[in-house]
Design goal:
mainly beta; single chain; four-stranded antiparallel beta sheet; elongated; three-stranded antiparallel beta sheet
Amino acid sequence: MNDPFRHLQRLERELGDITLQLTQGHFNLYGAADRWRPAINAWRCIDRFVVCVDLAGVEKVAIQVLAEPHRLIIRGTRPPPEPACDQHQPVQVLAMEIDYGPFERVLDLPAAVDPESVHAEHREGLLWVYLPLRPHS
């Protein structure tokens, strides 16, 4: 007779084996990049480019904005987000999806901007960069 739960029991054993492997803490990094790239939104307005960079958890002093006539470079470092535990026991990692460490984002611009007039605002975890277009010469 064919047991309908046999397949589920095998699947449960396999998931248990996977869980055991993950909780033993034998993690390997395979070709991890030395820098991560924050997400951006970018717009071209009539007189400027506007770039919004997702930098949650990054202090303003840890951000460097460099503007060139046809390029915007944003660099910095985000510390690892870690919980404040009340106990002195090891913490089990259940998920690690938030990038941390050094970051860099380079955006090539399709038109020349005036690097001296660029300004940025850091608010609510977002960096807003305003890049006025260079007047036609």
